[in-house]
From TrEMBL:
One of its GO terms (biological process) is anther wall tapetum development. The keyword Plastid does not apply. This is Myb domain. GO terms for molecular function: DNA binding. Keywords: Developmental protein, DNA-binding, Nucleus, Repeat, Transcription, Transcription regulation. SMART domains: SANT. It comes from Arabidopsis suecica. GO terms for cellular component: nucleus. Residues 9-61, 62-112 form the Myb-like domain. Its main location: nucleus. It is found in: Nucleus.
DNA sequence: AAGTCACTCAACCGCAGGACG
DNA sequence: GCGTCCTGCGGTTGAGTGACT
């Protein structure tokens, strides 16, 4: 049976909105306010689905919306928020007054993702692509011929896409992978970490739109070059090493650690976003003591699974 | 000038969760 | 506890447009 449609699809108009339709919604909302969108089309004299009306209002007609392009500061905040909470566009949009989740999502998919990939940063893990590729070779055992090609400057995007696709294909449920990744501390995997990016200490350096910003990075932004072998050799594979290296920008000179509650604690995320924008060292001492044992348990399970199902590693077919 | 391609973004779709009776 | 309705959300689609051949 399934869920009944929200409206008679065959009798409602679809597609782009006309000025006249916009005017009808605006006029109705001005008098009655928003709410009960299923009734609004009828009351406002629109041949549209209520859901469509709500979307048009929230994404375009709302008076508090900005319609200009994203500023570098907004872009940096999106990237930082995405690093922390992933593709929770509505939460990210709440950090950007006048922007909708649809705006943020579109901007990420069309601009920011490509910018990061051009800079050699995997947009999913926010880690250097070379590191992701290097680690992935360890998943597949002793490497695979298709990934042994030497990356050139011209192949950064291709390499990035490869890394991205590998992550997607390897994870049966990408969202669960991502959510679980948010729950980890970096403490257990710090042995294999490269130096994290410091967004806040270098405003806009990520967003200059050129790869030169990457190559000219200072000591505080020591991202691994796309065509460069990671400085820290990866000798073993750990799932935890695929996870975000640090959900918050690391404070130089401190032992800032992450927190287990990022993914599920909006309040905490708000604090972190403010923290990010202000670059203050207020949470450096906030430590989660259960994190290591949690990661250890995951790793133990991982080893257990591999010992029981060794053929899993052989099943990858790239 | 015409055709093709790539990109952007508004809009759609289906699912999940909360409120309510 | 269950069903229905409404709203919010994230992923995806496709029309429009400009760049390129």
């Amino acid at each position: 049976m399934g869920r009944p449609p929200c409206c008679d699809k065959s009798n409602v108009k679809k597609g782009l909105w006309t000025e006249e339709e916009d005017a009808k919604i605006l006029a109705y909302v001005a008098i009655h306010g928003v709410g009960n969108w299923s009734l609004i089309p009828k009351k406002a004299g629109l041949n549209r689905c209520g859901k469509s009306c709500r979307l048009r209002w929230t994404n375009y007609l709302r008076p508090d919306l900005k319609h200009d392009s994203f500023s570098p500061q907004e872009e940096e905040l999106i990237i930082e928020c995405h690093k922390i909470i992933g593709s929770r566009w509505s939460s990210i949009a709440r950090k950007l007054p006048g922007r909708t989740d649809n705006d943020v999502k579109n901007h990420w998919n069309t601009k920011l993702k490509k910018k990061l990939m051009k800079m050699g940063i995997d947009p999913v893990t926010h880690k250097p692509v070379s590191q992701v590729l290097s680690e992935f070779r360890n998943i597949s055992g002793h490497g695979n011929a298709s990934f042994k090609t030497e990356p050139s400057n011209n192949s950064i995007l291709t390499q990035s896409n490869s890394a991205w696709e590998m992550m997607r294909n390897t994870t049966t449920n990408h969202e669960s992978y991502y959510n679980s990744s948010m729950m980890f501390t970096n403490s257990a995997s710090s042995e294999f970490q490269t130096t994290p990016f410091h967004f806040s200490s270098h405003p806009n350096h990520l967003l200059s739109g050129t790869t030169s910003s990457c190559s000219s990075s200072s000591s505080s932004a020591s991202i691994t070059q796309p065509n460069q072998v990671p400085q820290t050799p990866v000798t073993n594979f750990y799932w935890s090493d695929f996870l975000l290296s640090d959900p918050v920008p690391q404070v130089v000179g401190s032992s800032a650690t992450s927190d287990l509650t990022y993914a599920n604690n909006e309040h905490h995320f708000n604090n972190q976003a403010e923290y990010t924008s202000q670059n203050i060292d207020s949470k450096a001492s906030k430590t989660c003591h259960s994190a290591s044992s949690f990661v250890d348990e995951i790793l133990d399970k991982d080893q257990e699974m591999l010992s029981q199902f060794p053929q899993l590693l052989n099943d990858f077919d790239y």
